[in-house]
Amino acid sequence: MRSPAVSISARPPWVRASVTEESPPAAQGASAEVHLPLQIVHVGDDDPDKCTARRLGKFDLAALSAPSRPPQEGLVLDPTSEYALAPDLPTPERVVAVDCSWTSLEDHGVPVGLTRRALPYLLAGNPINFGRPFALTTVEALAAAVYILGAQQQATELLEPFSWGHTFLELNAEPLQRYAAAADAPAVIAIQQEYLDRAG
Length: 200
What we know:
Layout: H1 4-7, H2 13-16, E1 38-42, H3 52-58, E2 63-65, E3 75-77, E4 95-99, E5 115-117, H4 138-148, H5 152-159, H6 165-171, H7 173-181, H8 185-199
Parallel strand pairs: 1-2, 1-4, 3-4, 3-5
Helix pairs in contact: 4-5
């Protein structure tokens, strides 16, 4: 169930999720529902009974790969990235998550050569970290990412195998909708700041 490399870091990700020249100039612009290929770099050092990545693989909702065989292209969810995930990104080849124990976060870097983006402020819906900001499981992080990128139905499908999955979407219904409707990364950052101010 733990997945720090896609959800939480020792440094506050909201500080680093800034907008720079790496942000794409053109919006995706498509209103039609998309379906994004998903890949998880599965380290396998957490509790297998609580590992959401394994369940996603079991239901063929995401492809699992070993750290020795990382993907060569796509968008990787990285909480240490300086760039925020926003809906104006070009549709990626795949969305990649790194699934590992929170205690080994610093030992497992994200795959190199991929577009790195940090998720904006969201609350965990999983039972272990319920209500904690950024403390998402791998499935929550992937569901949030595809939702923001325009694949809302896919986000729902990802969470269906989990009894608490609907809780994540209900808990974050407003921010997810606002992030997904944002024009670009600066708009996502501004929306995120509103929630951080409320939480503070």
